[in-house]
Amino acid sequence: MEPYIFWLILGVVLVVAEILTPTFFFFWFALGAFAAAGVSFVSGTIVQIITFMCVSGVLVLLTRPLAKKLTKSEPRKIHIDEIIGKEAIVIETIDNKQGKGLVKVNGEIWRAYSDSDDVTIEQGQKVTILKVEGAHVVVHKIERGGEA
């Protein structure tokens, strides 16, 4: 296989990866691969690799902050920060002794445990998220008219 074909294939794969992902990151490496394809007609493998790395690196360093500014994408807060203290709806009865229970908060479903092993919280009731432990939340039952 001719070197320029390898670089062109790599460039196309990276463009496709850019299209399939919400980031604006792979495109710079695709441009680096296309630059290396152009260099492959006049130089050897080492120069092609250096061209790929330099063009990609320079583009990432110089244009990524600009791309972020243009897209105005803010990093999403971690879910843990968002849901602690929020009210959730029990969508599967929470029973610590049976190890089951699900709640829905902010449109997402979390495995849930009650803050007390003696309390069973029925489906449809409201709870407050106290903390997140791994992949589940610890909740406290909200009694009618306020918190318990």
Automatic annotation (TrEMBL):
<dbReference type="InterPro" id="IPR002810">
    <property type="entry name" value="NfeD-like_C"/>
</dbReference>
<feature type="transmembrane region" description="Helical">
    <location>
        <begin position="37"/>
        <end position="62"/>
    </location>
</feature>
<dbReference type="InterPro" id="IPR012340">
    <property type="entry name" value="NA-bd_OB-fold"/>
</dbReference>
<feature type="transmembrane region" description="Helical">
    <location>
        <begin position="7"/>
        <end position="31"/>
    </location>
</feature>
<dbReference type="Pfam" id="PF01957">
    <property type="entry name" value="NfeD"/>
</dbReference>
<dbReference type="InterPro" id="IPR052165">
    <property type="entry name" value="Membrane_assoc_protease"/>
</dbReference>
<keyword id="KW-0472">Membrane</keyword>
<feature type="domain" description="NfeD-like C-terminal">
    <location>
        <begin position="81"/>
        <end position="141"/>
    </location>
</feature>
<protein>
    <submittedName>
        <fullName>Nodulation efficiency protein D (NfeD)</fullName>
    </submittedName>
</protein>
<keyword id="KW-0812">Transmembrane</keyword>
<keyword id="KW-1133">Transmembrane helix</keyword>
<dbReference type="GO" id="GO:0005886">
    <property type="term" value="C:plasma membrane"/>
</dbReference>
